[in-house]
Design a protein that fits this description.
Blueprint: H1 2-17, E1 20-24, E2 30-34, E3 48-52, E4 55-60, E5 71-76, E6 81-87, E7 101-106, H2 107-110, E8 118-120
Parallel strand pairs: 6-8
Antiparallel strand pairs: 1-2, 3-4, 4-7, 5-6
């Protein structure tokens, strides 16, 4: 029973330790390195996304000046293909846009064949 409990604790702790290296030197210096850290901006929380008329259409928050070129689109070659939108330019305008704006990227702009199975991995608002 004890072995099963240790195995269960190990299984629960493994995801917490994945991608992390902890170094302890003899001098007492502790160094932590998160190897899964990405220096780019985080994935944008979007209002909705869909594929329509050969394009990815995403509704995002806007202060009046948001454009598709303000985003970096990352494509992960998984099955299905995973698409992540990251805002690289802040919208500093001051317009009231309560419903946000719809942005579109064609399959060609995304570098995908039309009809390629894909999903958006951004969090939803």
């Amino acid at each position: 029973m004890r072995g099963l409990r240790i195995l269960a604790v190990g299984a629960l702790a493994a995801p917490l330790l994945a991608g992390c290296v902890i170094y302890d030197s003899e001098a007492g210096e502790n160094v932590s390195v998160n190897v899964s850290r990405r220096d780019g901006p985080p994935a944008e929380a979007i209002r909705e996304a869909r594929f329509a008329d050969g394009a990815l259409v995403a509704r995002v928050d806007s202060n009046g000046c948001t454009q598709a070129s303000d985003f970096e689109v990352s494509i992960a070659d998984n099955d299905p293909t995973e698409i992540t939108l990251r805002r690289t330019k802040q919208d500093l305008c001051k317009a009231l846009v309560p419903d946000g704006v719809e942005l579109r990227w064609t399959y060609a702009e995304l570098g995908l064949e039309p009809g390629t199975p894909a999903r958006i991995v951004n969090p939803l608002k």
